[in-house]
Design goal:
The complex is a heterodimer of chains A (547) and B (383).
Chain A (H helix, E strand, L loop, with lengths): L4 H7 L2 E5 L3 H4 L1 H14 L3 E4 L12 E3 L6 H14 L5 H7 E2 L1 H8 L4 H8 L3 H13 L3 E5 L1 H4 L4 H14 L10 E3 L6 H6 L6 E2 L3 E2 L3 H11 L12 H9 L5 E5 L3 H4 L3 H9 L3 E6 L11 E4 L8 E4 L4 E5 L12 H16 L5 H5 L10 H11 L8 H7 L1 E3 L23 E2 L18 E6 L15 H6 L4 E4 L1 H7 L6 E5 L4 E8 L7 E5 L12 E4 L6 E2 L3 E7 L3
Parallel strand pairs in A: 1-2, 1-5, 2-3, 4-15, 5-6, 9-10, 10-11, 16-20, 17-19
Antiparallel strand pairs in A: 7-8, 12-13, 13-14, 16-23, 17-20, 18-19, 18-23, 21-22
Chain B lengths: L2 E6 L2 E6 L4 H7 L23 E4 L6 E2 L10 E3 L3 H15 L16 H8 L24 E3 L9 H10 L4 E4 L6 E4 L15 H5 L5 E3 L12 E6 L8 E7 L2 E7 L11 H5 L14 E3 H5 L30 E3 L2 H19 L4 E4 L6 H14 L5 E2 L5
Parallel strand pairs in B: 1-5, 15-16
Antiparallel strand pairs in B: 1-2, 3-4, 3-5, 6-9, 7-8, 10-11, 11-12, 13-14
Classes of the chains: A alpha/beta (547), B alpha+beta (383).
The complex binds iron/sulfur cluster (3 copies) and FE2/S2 (inorganic) cluster (FES).
């Protein structure tokens, strides 16, 4: 997020939520947004195919078809440009590429967009005018935007819109991706990505290569970025990847086309999984290492606002479990000797070549030493200040609540015109319904934790498929009846929740429950740039179960 | 905001105009008891426990609602004030079960603390009819005991001004007044989202987390502040621990959540102590004793039993056996080194975790790059 939660809740004059079911997925921030509407009367524009709970508070709800976000965003920009409602000063002083953007946008008049998105053209105009009249405005998005083959384009379009409105680098504004997991921001920041060292230092740059080579004594070649998750699976299937080490993830349920993922993992020579439970993925492993939960370890998490906060141990690890940092460093130590019975000088002499960490504070120090945006984030400062938001370049720096104030990292903000690309798989005769996926308030991700929390499991015990009454009537399906859902990739069963939350022709499912997990159905087609699979749109067929 | 000069208990204080007497006193270290007031909520002025004497005002005034203006002279602890507070407490308690002996909230109850502080015995106005509401509401999270409700409306305000769904109200008047959910139905049939903000602010045991019943009183629990393990909001939580088990979670005052949580953060903690937790390393038998890794059943879904059948493979060599850390880690190190030697580092890939700490993710990336010499590392950021 470019802006903190508090700033948005207190200072935004307009809220635009697109592809985020905020009150169910980021509930506490959802509450704060709800209060902004209730107490300050801030207009809320919602773009979401489903009638999600926060729709009750929306001034305008644009229920566009799943996968048509770029068209919708372009339509909004069309109105801003043609009705001359955009921020001329911001565009002139802070951006470049406006003319190119304009040329592209002019192909998206609201009438055309209305047709692509299946929304009312007048609503697009009203929404754009509202955004222009109430500034600064904050834009929030989540996986509803990114999990498409056009995900990269959607994200860029969000930025284009906010720059056009002059809503970047100001309090109460910003482009704000809401991160779905406690430390997904941190795991990206830490270099848990195939193309970046920590702090987004590009692996393909000679400078970062040299830096880490000097620090660690050994690094991979500079000219060969790694594989992304979905690419890894394919490489495993074809025997190019022989071994995997999976920490606290459950790709056998969380990744698209789960049947395929399981085949890929089973094809490995050697799979190590470190987790709390024998998850669907751990069941395929050769070795399973029992890690510790958040309550059994020390360390830091970085939230959606780029805020680094301390995680503190409350329990001794259960049984013989060990905190994960301890397991990884113990393994690292042994691996070091297994690979190099005699330690090469380069590693022995490198300042951070070793693996004998005594505690997470030492690791955070290494992170700070090697990561410019975390350079000032040290345990003793977190203890004193409670939290710090990166970039925090040195130990005097107070942290950066709002990004891009006065200047973008690259200087001027560049408009990158994006065209509309339909989802990779659209409904047809054999698979006539469009499936979109998500999570519910009471569960989390693959459910390996929440299904084991008694209260959550009791209140939401099984996977449902939301089906519009018209579709249900056509299929002869009653509310609560178990149906079979099939795509080109798999079949699952789920209980029908007949509801107008979805529109006719669209169905919604979660992946919290193994027996009705949408990911047996979803399409692993990737966004060509961001490599994010298209979870949010694929074609399915729903039928009554044979009794 | 203009500044005003006031005097509280003889102390001269400069304060922002229109702050309440309670806010100004508290900010200046002067104690005024409060019961219906909660600092995160708009004031209500319902309980009259915060009464103070203000010169030139005919009656005593509730400090939680009275705004400061120039020249106010306030006495927070005069005999008259103490007497009035005691009277207010007597009234509240006349209709209270007084079963503190077995009450969950003992030691963590605003009402109990104040009754003690003001020497209220609870026998002044008894003889009237007592409430005998059935305890409970059929939901997995929150126990509702209306007999212990003092109608302070903190829960009503929390649901309105913190959460926003307005699931709680007060129905009827006088003796029959009581809290109600939705259209006077159950919590689950109301717009309630089980965020527990109402439980957080309830000063008594009227609203209490069901999962914590009988698990220990405040003084028996250790309280540790940490960050929620679920979504990316990063709410700060207090974990209340007894005998190495989390028995309760409350909201801590973090910059993202300001003392409140959602249902997952507050009530979704018990997976931590779940009996299915793995507690020792597991390895396939063939890795220890030789034999071959048989093809495991990886047909996966589509047959109605997704993910089943992987544990019992029908091949004893492929069964999981428990082992010690040394054996497991040596085995893994040896295998990874062998694969690197035979096929090169790019035959290895790692997935780090969006649910693990920065430190752990950093080490995963270091292990992959420094030791295995590949950039094949990713995680489910995109999922
Ligand atoms: S339930 Fe608790 S918070 Fe609500 S009115 Fe009763 S005592 Fe007050
Ligand atoms: S749990 Fe939350 S939503 Fe439900 S009544 Fe209490 S405050 Fe309202
Ligand atoms: S308490 Fe709820 S909103 Fe807060 S971090 Fe946890 S899951 Fe997210
Ligand atoms: S605390 Fe002021 S009236 Fe209750």
């Amino acid at each position: 997020m470019t802006n903190p939660f508090d700033d948005i809740a207190k200072n935004a004059q307009c809220l635009f939520i697109i592809g985020s079911n905020t009150t169910e997925q980021h509930p506490v921030f959802g509450m704060q947004l709800r209060q902004a509407v209730k107490q300050r009367g801030v207009p809320l524009i919602l773009a979401d195919p489903r009638r999600i709970p926060i729709a009750d508070y929306a001034t305008i709800h644009l229920r566009h078809k799943p996968g048509t976000d770029t068209a919708l965003l372009n339509g909004l920009m069309y109105v801003l440009i043609t009705e001359d409602l955009y921020d001329h000063e911001f565009v002139a002083n802070r951006t470049e590429g406006f003319e190119e953007l304009k040329a592209k946008i002019l192909a998206y008049p609201p009438e055309r967009v209305a047709e692509i998105c299946d929304v009312n053209a007048e609503d697009i105009r009203r929404a754009a005018r509202l955004m222009a009249a109430h500034r600064p405005g904050a834009l929030m998005y989540a996986m509803g935007i990114t999990q498409h083959t056009s995900g990269h384009g959607n994200v860029i379009s969000c930025a284009n819109l906010q720059m056009l409105l002059g809503n970047v680098g100001v309090a109460g504004g910003g482009v704000n991706p809401l991160r779905g997991q406690s430390n997904v921001q941190g795991s990206c920041d830490m270099g848990g990505l195939p193309n970046y060292y920590s702090g987004y230092q590009n692996v393909a740059l000679e400078a970062s290569h040299k830096k880490f080579e000097a620090a660690w004594g050994a690094v991979p070649p500079v000219d060969k970025p790694g594989l992304t998750l979905v690419e890894m699976m394919r490489a495993a299937e074809h025997g190019q990847i022989k071994a995997m080490y999976i920490l606290g993830e459950n790709p056998a349920l969380s990744d698209p086309d789960s049947n395929h993922v399981r085949r890929c993992l089973a094809a490995l020579d050697f799979l190590v999984v470190q987790d709390l439970f024998l998850t669907e993925t751990a069941q395929l492993a050769d070795v399973v290492l029992p890690g510790a939960s958040f309550a059994e370890k020390d360390g830091t998490f970085t939230n959606s606002e780029r805020r680094v906060q301390r995680v503190q141990r409350a329990l001794n690890p259960i049984g013989e479990c060990r905190p994960d940092w301890e397991i990884i460093s113990d393994l690292g130590q042994r691996l070091l000797t297994a690979i190099w019975p005699e330690l090469p000088d380069a590693i022995a002499e490198a300042p951070h070549g070793h693996w004998d960490y005594m505690n997470p504070v030492e690791i955070l120090d290494e992170i700070a030493d090697l990561t410019p945006s975390y350079a000032g984030i040290r345990a003793h400062r977190l203890e004193k200040l409670g939290s710090l938001q990166w970039p925090c370049p040195d130990e005097k720096h107070p942290g950066t609540p709002i990004l891009h104030v006065g200047k973008f990292t690259r200087g001027l903000g560049k408009f990158q015109p994006m065209g509309y690309l339909p989802p990779a798989e659209l409904p047809d005769e054999s698979y006539p319904l469009l499936l979109t996926t998500g999570r519910v308030l009471y569960h989390y991700h693959t459910g390996s934790l929440t299904r084991r929390a008694r209260g959550l499991a009791a209140i939401y015990p099984e996977g449902l498929i939301e089906l519009h009454p018209e579709d249900a009537a056509r299929l002869g399906v009653a509310n609560g009846e178990t149906v079979e859902v099939a795509s080109r990739r798999g079949r699952v069963h789920a209980k029908a929740d007949v509801t107008e939350r979805v529109q006719p022709g669209v169905v919604f499912m979660t992946f919290h429950f193994p027996d009705s997990a949408a990911n047996f159905l979803t399409n692993p087609a990737l966004d060509p740039v961001a490599k994010i699979p298209e979870f949010k749109a694929c074609a399915v067929r729903v039928s009554k179960c044979a009794v | 905001m203009p500044q005003v000069n006031i005097t509280i208990d003889g102390k001269k204080i400069k304060a922002e105009a229109f702050k309440t007497v309670y806010e100004v006193a508290t900010a200046n270290g002067i104690y005024i008891p409060a019961l219906c007031h909660h600092p995160a909520l708009p004031p209500e002025g319902a309980c009259r426990v915060c009464l103070v004497e203000i010169e030139r005002q005919r009656a005593l005034q509730p400090a939680c609602t009275f705004p400061v203006t120039e020249g106010l002279v306030i006495h927070t602890n005069s005999p008259k004030v103490r007497e009035a507070r005691k009277f207010a407490l007597e009234l509240i308690i006349s209709d209270h079960p007084l079963d503190c002996m077995t009450c969950e909230a003992t030691g963590d109850c605003r009402l109990q603390d104040l009754a003690y502080e003001y020497g209220v015995k609870g026998n002044e106005y008894t003889g009237g009819v007592q409430h005998t509401y059935p305890i409970d509401d059929p939901n997995p999270f929150i126990q509702v005991d209306r007999n212990k409700c003092i109608l302070c409306r903190r829960c009503v305000r929390a649901c309105n001004y913190i959460n926003g769904v307005e699931a709680i109200g007060i129905v009827y008047r006088g003796f029959k007044a009581r809290i109600a959910f939705g259209m006077d139905s159950t919590m689950q049939d109301s717009p309630c989202e089980f965020c527990g903000s109402c439980v957080e602010v309830c000063p008594t045991a009227a609203l209490w987390p069901k999962m914590s019943l009988g698990k220990g009183r405040a003084w028996q629990l250790k309280k540790i502040e940490t960050i929620c393990s679920y979504c990316g909001v990063g709410c700060r939580l207090n974990l209340h621990v007894r005998d190495n088990e989390i028995v309760k979670v409350t909201g801590a005052d973090g910059p993202a959540n300001h003392g409140f949580t959602c249902v997952k953060g507050r009530f979704g903690y018990d997976y931590v102590n779940h009996p299915e937790r793995l507690t020792r390393p597991l390895v396939r038998r063939y890795l220890l004793e030789g034999g071959s890794k048989a093809a495991t059943d990886h047909r996966g879904g589509g047959d109605g039993k997704n993910g089943d059948g992987l544990l019992a493979t029908g091949n004893a060599a492929a069964d999981f056996v428990e082992t010690d850390w040394d054996t497991a880690l040596n085995l893994v190190a040896h295998k990874f080194a062998e694969i690197k030697r035979n096929y090169g580092g790019d035959a290895f890939a790692a997935l780090c975790s969006a649910r693990c700490t920065n430190e752990e993710n950093f080490l995963m990336a270091k292990l992959t790059r420094q030791l295995m010499a590949t950039h094949n590392i990713d995680h489910c950021a995109r999922l």
